[in-house]
Specification:
The complex is a heterodimer of chains A (about 50) and B (about 260). With about 50 residues, chain A is mainly α. Chain A has one helix and no strands. Chain B has one domain. Classes of the chains: A mainly alpha (about 50), B mainly alpha (about 260).
């Protein structure tokens, strides 16, 4: 690991926060893609069966 | 001849703008954008930690710039995209314009928040303070609040087409903040340094710093385009599902 000097805490904190928020954004976005796709699939199936 | 070519161009544009057509062509972009983003992040992080020397002034904290600058750039780029979409909503009533506006707002808020936090974390060891009410930081904070306001506004309307018009007008009003952010460092005597990257006379930093900065900016931009595309697709699917849900309720009420 490279030496980040006396301000390593600030550098690590910046990368940790950006990583968490970015991974969170990707996670929420992908989960919404599947959630809405499943919802649409269910509603289309219900319409076909007349439920 | 001109009329004919304009008609062809307009038809081509209308086809691309049709939600069904958008869902088809955008599906082909998801994997390439995802893979490109992963590769750019891997290369960018390698440059940022193993190929970038400490800056003569900032020292090791220059590495914070590799995540701060891309987020600051995207906070404004995203708003620019929303402003163009707002024009599309109000002037051309483009079917995908309000979808684009709605999909972009939370992303813009997240990138602006990251720009503010990473800027503070860089400011403490460099300037000796986490926050200073100077032009650049205050106008960026206002941008963050505008994003939050627009997200809240989308949620207050049940009719999303009506919401789109109100949000579009407010987005265009808020766009006045973008040049203020950009030129605040030139107009006022601020703590924030002037641009070192986006300058008319070229970047004012050594290649060892410009390379990771550019790679990380590209990585975040590609990620933003991917997330925006995915969120637009989700919104199209959601609106289709909402219509079916309303039809289902109407059928049930009729049958009761």
């Amino acid at each position: 690991m490279i030496d980040l000097g006396p301000h390593a805490t600030f550098i690590i904190a910046a990368y940790a926060i950006v990583s968490l928020v970015t991974i969170g954004l990707v996670g929420v976005t992908i989960s919404n893609v599947f959630r809405q796709a499943r919802r649409l699939e269910r509603l289309e199936a219900e319409r076909k069966t007349g439920a | 001849m001109t009329d004919q070519s304009e008609t062809i161009s307009s038809n081509w544009f209308s086809q691309l703008a049709h939600p069904g057509m958008f869902m088809r062509w955008s599906a082909y972009l998801i994997w390439p954008l995802g893979l490109l983003s992963i590769v750019l992040f891997a290369v960018g992080l390698w440059f940022a930690f193993f190929h970038s020397p400490a800056d003569y002034q900032m020292g090791e904290t220059v590495r914070i710039m590799y995540v701060h600058v891309p987020n600051a750039w995207l906070s404004q780029f995203c708003y620019g995209l929303m402003a163009v979409s707002a024009v599309g909503t109000l002037v051309w009533r483009h079917p995908m314009a309000d979808v684009s506006m709605k999909a972009a707002a939370p992303l813009g808020a997240a990138f602006t928040a990251m720009a503010l936090v990473t800027g503070s974390l860089w400011g403490r060891p460099t300037w000796g303070t986490f926050w200073e009410w100077d032009g650049r930081m205050t106008s960026t904070l206002i941008l963050f609040l505008i994003y939050l306001g627009l997200i809240a506004l989308w949620r207050t309307f049940e009719d999303q087409l009506r919401a789109a018009k109100v949000v579009a007008v407010l987005t265009l009003v808020g766009a006045v903040n973008i040049p203020i952010i950009k030129f605040s460092v030139d107009w006022w005597n601020t703590l924030h340094q002037p641009s070192t990257f986006f300058r008319a006379d070229g970047p004012k930093a050594p290649a060892s710093i410009i390379t990771p900065l550019l790679t990380m900016t590209l990585a975040f931009t590609v990620l933003f385009l991917l997330l925006h595309l995915l969120r637009m697709r989700t919104e199209v699917t959601k609106r289709k599902a909402d219509r079916l849900e309303h039809l289902k309720i109407a059928r049930q009420q009729k049958g009761a």
